[in-house]
Amino acid sequence: MKREGTFPLSDARKPFPAGIIAGWEFRQLLRNAWVYGFAAVLAAVGISLALSSGEGGANGFNRLSASLSGLVILLSSLMGILVSSFSFAGDRADRMLELLRSVPVGRAGYLGGKLAGVWLAETAAFTAGFLPAALSTAISGGWTGQLPAAWLSGAFLLAVYTAWGALVGALSKNRLNAVAAALLLWFISLLLFEMALWSGVALVPWYLQKPLVAAGILIDPAETVRVGAVFLQGQGGVFGPEFQAWQDFFRTLPGLAAGAVIALLHLLIPSVLAFAAIRREE
Amino acid sequence: MSVREIRVTGLTKRYGKKTALDRVSLRVNAGETIAFCGLNGAGKSTLLRILAGALRPTEGLVEGLSGFRPGYMPDAVQFPRGVRGGEWLSHIASLKGVPESEAREILAEMGLEKAGREEAASYSRGMLQRLLFAQALLGSPDLVLMDEPQNGLDPFWAHEWKLRVKELRDRKVTVVFSSHRLGDALETADRMVLFHRGRIIGDDLPSTWTASGLEPERYLFGRVSDADSGRS
Fold first, then answer.
1. How far is CA A253 from the centre of its chain?
2. Which residues of B are less than 8 Å from A1 in CB distance?
3. Which A residues, 71 through 130, put their C-beta within 8 Å of a C-beta on chain B?
4. Burial status of residue B1 (CB atoms within 10 A of its CB: 0-12, 13-18, 19 or more)
5. Per-residue DSSP letters for A74-88?
6. Any idea where the domains of chain A sit in the sequence?
7. Closest C-alpha to A87, from A40, A128, A28, A157
């Protein structure tokens, strides 16, 4: 105990909290059985789909590859929001956040580092599950041109739903509340929202239908990705001439810029809300 | 050389409608050892958390903290499964910019060298407290803040804790801790700050308590009763 001070630190030795926290979260989550569980389910269901589906479809957009895309959207969003909300709520419930704040680690460093670490671990697990599923799809005659878009969709949705999970975790009293709220949000976003949107479209006057569909697709990240992935492959025409026109726009330079802004907003909005929720808790 | 001190002025912390701290003012001089005493819910932990930077006050000012390198030991941190005590301490060391060798050294001083390779979630309360004490001491802080640090410690480590606090005091490290072990607090502290219902109702030398001739618990109850009946 006769140790003398190691502070003040030279600039060269000053730690970068966000990077340290990201590395820690990444290593910890790679030991998490739930993350491997998601990867295993993605691989198993993906392979089953490949083995049980027939070929067919129009313009290369066949049923088998569409099924894999749907599976990726369902599972990556679920994994993102569940793992993240559990992890963020755990830090608060266990008082680890309080300890980190005293180190001191700033809110931005904590949130940024944790989001990055959780997302990297999830993406690693997702990729591990996606590869065998994608390989089976290719062997079974699915359109392989769609696979990169499916992987990108998964990685993007993992990031977006990880950020929503951070918000849910920051607002929840404990892990159980966080998981329940995360499941409810996922159910609304992935299943209820689409049904509500198309029911709503049928009820509004014709001149409101187009803006409502556009707003609905842009608001819900799962919808954005569902439609965006189709546009990315140049298959928007399967939804009708209106979607073909939107696709044509999104394949121009201003359209690509608009798409990037939309993607960024999907990441930023829940992250900023999570930051505010963490601040409010103090 | 200017005299360093922490000045707390009119500090209030509310959680919704509940007031945890009510216009508290306090000065902590560098090198002092101060014990926060009081019943549960008196506001001791809230003030410690604010001093540690883990909590923001609703109103009031805390000045002078930037001149210190704090180490904070919270009460009752839990660890998720899979986290080993030693690797966690190394993680905190990285965040503080402290060499890993120092983390290993402190871990050994706390008698956790072997246990450091085990999951922290499997530790007894006393082992957890020693791990948390170890992380508070990482980086040789000159301000050590501890919330109920003796909870769960066995007689050997409770004694060791006292020795280490005295050692910190000898090295002019500022120490602020909350405690229900009033005998130990009287033995180690320079000042006894008594909290009740979010306010400070006493800031005394330990000799004031001992001079009363009462057991410290009885002295505390008397002061609290006086505060409730408006006699202090």
1. 25
2. 109, 164, 167
3. 90, 93-96, 98-105
4. exposed
5. HHHHHHHHHHHHHHH
6. 9-280
7. A28
Nearest alpha-carbon partner for B84 in B51, B112, B111: B112
The contact set of B with A (CB < 8 A) is 49, 52-56, 69-70, 72, 74-80, 82-83, 91-92, 94-99, 102, 105, 109, 132, 135, 139-140, 142, 145, 164, 167
Tell me the nearest-neighbour CA distance from B226 into chain A, angstroms.
33
Model confidence over A69-87: pLDDT tens digits?
888 999 999 999 999 999 9
Chain B hits for A96, Cβ within 8 Å: 77
A189 touches A82 (CB < 8 A): no
ipTM of model: 0.86
Do the Cβ atoms of A171 and A179 come closer than 8 Å?
Answer: no
User: What pLDDT, in 10s, does the model give residues B115-154?
Assistant: 999 999 999 999 999 999 999 999 999 999 999 999 999 9
- Give the whole-angstrom CA distance, residue B223 versus residue A211: 69
Position A210 confidence tier, pLDDT thresholds 50, 70, 90: confident
Quick check: A15 and B95 CB within 8 A?
Answer: yes
